[in-house]
Write a structure and sequence with these properties.
The model has no long low-confidence stretch (mean pLDDT 92). The chain is globular. It has seven helices and six strands. Strands 1, 2, 3, 4, 5 and 6 form a six-stranded mixed β-sheet that branches. With 253 residues, it is an alpha/beta fold.
Length: 253
């Protein structure tokens, strides 16, 4: 699919959801435009400076009132809460898992007093960064999400599943198990059981290959949080554009 068509269709989906959100009188961009740009940033998966050069240099006609780069970054953080409008509804079963995101090389750990995240294990390797947790439907749409420092155990993400456990059976791996006091609404899948749970692994593979999410560069929590919010919204929108299939690779920019 051509880039212009991807941008246009994404904007139409966003505007259908957020058309009721009014634009400030002194603002250059409508909220729908800001959220669309946030999704495009997550989809392209690069640093913000080259993304801004690409957006302004190639697609200025689609965003004629594009503000200065640092101003746009602040707007993306401010309007990120609107991304919750694009999260999916829970199904009879939901799947939860965590995903390690490396923010700095381990040799640079501790050099900055404002470092985000700590050293922890992800997929049997050490990273310095955070863990992103997604709760997804059996088809792969994101229902809810959260993030913590990389040294945090997966059990700390159980609140995300518990928030939806009244309406859904939560499937997880052993990392989320509470020994001796397991909730009946949680199903802990052993290795080789419930292969339908592996849909979350495919989802994480897609955001790694297409959106380059395994290694990010953000140095403040609010910018990192905004990136994760737009990432979940973008994924659900592309899922819908792909006809309800995990085929978002065709939308890479």
């Amino acid at each position: 699919m051509r880039t212009e068509e991807i941008i246009t269709r994404l904007f139409c989906m966003v505007d259908d959801k957020l058309g009721h959100v009014k634009k400030r009188k002194d603002a250059n961009l409508h909220p729908s435009e800001i959220v669309t740009i946030g999704m495009l940033f997550s989809l392209k998966g690069v640093h913000f400076r080259p993304f801004y050069r690409w957006l302004k240099g190639d697609w200025q006609p689609l965003f004629p009132t594009l503000p200065e780069r640092s101003r746009l970054e602040r707007l993306l953080v401010k309007y990120e809460p609107l991304s919750v409008n694009f999260l999916a509804d829970p199904q009879a079963e939901s799947i939860i898992d965590s995903y390690g995101v490396e923010l700095i090389h381990p040799i640079r750990e501790g050099r900055s007093k404002t470092q985000i995240g700590e050293k922890g294990l992800s997929n049997h390797r050490w990273i310095v960064g955070v863990k992103l947790c997604w709760l997804v439907t059996p088809k792969g749409q994101v229902i809810d999400w959260g993030w913590e420092s990389a040294e945090v155990h997966d059990q700390n993400f159980r609140d995300i599943g518990n928030a939806w456990s009244e309406n859904s059976q939560i499937l997880s791996d052993n990392g989320f198990r509470l020994s001796g006091r397991e909730n009946a609404k949680w199903t802990i899948c052993q290795r080789g059981e419930r292969n339908d749970r592996m849909v979350v692994e495919r989802v994480f593979s897609l955001i790694t290959v297409v959106n380059h999410t395994k290694k990010l560069f953000h140095r403040t929590e609010r910018h990192l949080h905004a990136r994760f919010g737009y990432l979940a919204a973008m994924f659900n929108c592309l899922f819908e554009l792909a006809g309800g299939k995990l085929a978002i690779a065709q939308f890479s920019l």
